């Protein structure tokens, strides 16, 4: 890796910070038909100890079908209270209506969404539903069960 003079590193960091700030504060669409909310959990080393952090990721689908990452927030652990703050941030950035939120089964999630977007519908993510279904199935029975579940989730009605 090439060594950069201190002044050049400072300028590069300043440009990156400005670009990140602009992205974090950019105005968003007024309406999104679909918004997916999920957190990714990862380990970081802080003060010589590993701690679990949550990256709250919000992806919206615009009216023309384009995927748009609306934001990523970092928190200590996933909670509906933090999600409430994220939803309020989205509203303050101009998102006035969401037709359908797709979320996991976090306790209090539906209530947090209802507090900020009372007209929106909420659907539990199919991936999270399947994970919940397989949690109580023995390892040797998961593959046959998944074959049966696939028939259910790909059925026309």
What would your notes on this structure say?
The chain is globular. The N and C termini lie far apart (57 Å). The chain has helices at residues 6-24, 80-92, 109-116, 126-134, 139-153; strands spanning 31-46, 49-61, 67-75, 97-103, 121-124. It has five helices and five strands, in the order H-E-E-E-H-E-H-E-H-H. The chain has two domains: 29-124, Ribonuclease H-like superfamily/Ribonuclease H (Nucleotidyltransferase, domain 5), CATH 3.30.420; 125-157, no CATH class. The longest helix has 19 residues, at 6-24. It has 157 residues and is α/β, with parallel strands linked by helices. Helix content is 41%, strand content 31%. Strands 3-2-1-4-5 form a five-stranded mixed β-sheet.
In short:
With 157 residues, this protein is an alpha/beta fold. The protein has five helices and five strands, in the order H-E-E-E-H-E-H-E-H-H.
Describe the SSE topology:
Blueprint: H1 6-24, E1 31-46, E2 49-61, E3 67-75, H2 80-92, E4 97-103, H3 109-116, E5 121-124, H4 126-134, H5 139-153
Parallel strand pairs: 1-4, 4-5
Antiparallel strand pairs: 1-2, 2-3
The secondary-structure element order is HEEEHEHEHH
- Biggest sheet, open or closed, and with what strands and sense? 5 strands, mixed
**Strand-pairing-aware structural class:** alpha/beta
**Quick one: CATH superfamily of the largest domain?**
Ribonuclease H-like superfamily/Ribonuclease H
Q: Span between N and C termini?
A: 57 Å
Number of separate domains: 2
As a percent range, the share of strand residues is: 25-35%
CATH class of the largest domain: Alpha Beta
